[in-house]
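Continuing the batch. This is chain 6 of the set; chains 1 through 5 are on the previous pages. Same settings as before, nothing changed between runs. Recording input and output for traceability.
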Amino acid sequence: MISKRQYLKTKPACKVTFQLSTEAKHVALVGEFNGWNEASTPMKKSKEGAFSVSLELETGREYQYRYLVDGSNWINDENADKFVKTPLGNDNSVIVL
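Output for chain 6:
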């Protein structure tokens, strides 16, 4: 889930923290902001067991994304700003900045 948004005063950007609680061994954040590269944005596991990563994203845009759990299980963010159908019939999570 999107756990934090911090809009920057010095440039049109927002620092967004994505977080997912799961029993997984590995979670990656995959989306338009990283070219849907499954290896580009791994999430780090906290002592409490939640995975998280922070990104600085340009404001005035929408970004589609999903979580990739253990390399094979795609999960949407139930707290996303909205959802968009893909050509494959799935939904992608969307963050609006």
